[in-house]
Amino acid sequence: MPQGLTSKGAATRDRIIEGAAVLMRQSGAGVSLDEIREATRTSKSQLFHYFPQGREQLLLAVARHEADQILADQQPHLDDLTSWRSWHAWRNTVVARYRRQGRHCPLSVLLGQLAPDDEGARTVTVDLLERWQAKLAAGVRHMQDHDLMTRGIDAERAAEALLVSVEGGALILISTGSVSPLETSLDLTLDQLRVRP
Amino acid sequence: MPQGLTSKGAATRDRIIEGAAVLMRQSGAGVSLDEIREATRTSKSQLFHYFPQGREQLLLAVARHEADQILADQQPHLDDLTSWRSWHAWRNTVVARYRRQGRHCPLSVLLGQLAPDDEGARTVTVDLLERWQAKLAAGVRHMQDHDLMTRGIDAERAAEALLVSVEGGALILISTGSVSPLETSLDLTLDQLRVRP
DNA sequence: AGAATCCTGGACCGCCGGGTCCAGTCGGAG
DNA sequence: CTCCGACTGGACCCGGCGGTCCAGGATTCT
């Protein structure tokens, strides 16, 4: 990405990312630069003007965009997991999001395009998971501090388990089209955090 | 695949599948027919002789092979989940398998190569999940019948939740390289099936 | 033996797609 | 107004890869 960048240039750059994201969300599989070029009404030279390292850099930018979107979709609940009410609201938001998304996970498709051992691609995923887990752990810790969740399970572990439920549920949703595993697993895991009578 | 197929032909076909599987397991990402040809010491014409529909058919065969392998790796425990001892043995086998596998899931790489909405690819995954879930559910049911697991959770649901733990844990292992989420989630889910005192 | 069929080698083709280049146009700073 | 750097269009290149083809070797059956 060039150092000088006028507002017009920034707008074009964003249009490319957003357009590519939309394209991959619907088309699902591998997208060529020509398709992106056509969908965003740009030219080859613009693509390489804004992403000099080519395809990989572009896809990485789109992946980061999608990763941010995933967290943003869970707001405002994800940042305010301070009561069972908000936990349930969060749970419903997540389920609704994946139900809506159906069998097309934009991020997984994206990462499938990039080399799995590529450092950049790995970073995007790891960053997402870390941010996600941190927010969940904060929520669990707050609940434990107020005796609303059991202290028998370490907050970080609980957050890990919740993440596994969401990711695993989403993965199975992608394969089978069924949301019930996601719901079941998430509900069971949450259940386990309830204070035992 | 041709109708006539001598034992020599079948051997070559198997060699191609096995060789391609090994190749994808180590190389990780997209594999070209030329690489497969070289690794299996065959020629282009053989590849298309045994897989007339070309690359897709070949990858699909490899994917089926890998899916079967996943279940086979969990034997004999998966077919004998009749005591807590065997459940734990199964749990350890699964964890060990994914720990060994590390960040390279052959099946996910494979399916990433094929069009995600391809009917054949979908079938491979769905079949695997269904067989897997059926075996887990059978185990849970057996345990419930002998009052070794709680009857409070429907056997199919329990199997779904276990699957989510394994798949989600494996997915996170692939991304982050950490096995602990897999272990945590699996253990928590199993815990929940214990009969409450 | 001989024919029918399966199996194998490898040259060849065509296209798709990432990447390059250059000749412009635009837009704002001085 | 003028100039410079950012921005844009699109023709072009070229390597790789999936796929085709045919000629010839190996097998098996009658």
Automatic annotation (TrEMBL), chains A, B:
Molecular-function annotations in GO: DNA binding
SUPFAM superfamilies assigned to the protein according to its UniProt record, in alphabetical order: Homeodomain-like, Tetracyclin repressor-like, C-terminal domain
Keywords, sorted A to Z: DNA-binding, Transcription, Transcription regulation
Pfam families attached to this UniProt entry: TetR_N
InterPro entries in UniProt: Homeodomain-like_sf, HTH_TetR, Tet_transcr_reg_TetR-rel_C_sf
Domain HTH tetR-type: 16-62
Protein's name in the database: Transcriptional regulator, TetR family
Source species of the chain: Actinacidiphila alni
Lineage start: Bacteria, Bacillati, Actinomycetota, Actinomycetes, Kitasatosporales
